[in-house]
Amino acid sequence: MAKVTISSVIDAPVEKVWARIRDFNGLPGWHPRMVESHIEDGKNASTIGCVRNFELVTGARLREKLLDFSDENFLVSYSILETPQPLTNHKATLQLRRVTDGDRTYAEWTASFDAAPEEADKIAAGMGANVFQGGFNALKSHFSGQD
Q1: 52-61: long-range pairs with CB below 8 Å, 24+
Q2: How many Å apart are CA 97 and CA 23, to the nearest integer?
Q3: Rounded to an integer, what distance in angstroms lies between the CA atom of residue 108 and that of residue 72?
Q4: What is the pTM of this model?
Q5: Residue 115 in contact with residue 123, Cβ under 8 Å?
Q6: How far apart are alpha carbons 75 and 20 in whole angstroms?
Q7: Which end of the chain has fewer CB atoms at under 10 Å, N or C?
Q8: 146 band by pLDDT with thresholds 50, 70 and 90
């Protein structure tokens, strides 16, 4: 099983960062690699089991199922149901924690998945750099007033 962990500190209070990212259907509103998203079957975006169907800037489509959601713990977990990447058994968690020194936010995005040994490192590197770090960079830019 391959694992990815990316963390960052965002110069904004955890409540403000959570307000920006908490919508499971809201990726296109804050992540530069996502261009369109909808929740299937008319479900609410915070309902465990709902499925988001979204498009990347590359034109690829993904489907992800919401596994856990907590406003109290600033946490969202999901699994990839469909992706062009050759992976299975995916689970990811994005969690925010309060940093009291400067009223900032510690953000951590983790994932685990199965993939062929010759593909796993490449997939993990892309997921970490492009998706997870790319999202954190966009959040840091937003809260520093640069976007």
Answers
A1: 52/24, 52/25, 52/27, 52/78, 54/27, 54/28, 57/32, 57/33, 60/84
A2: 17
A3: 16
A4: 0.94
A5: yes
A6: 13
A7: N
A8: low
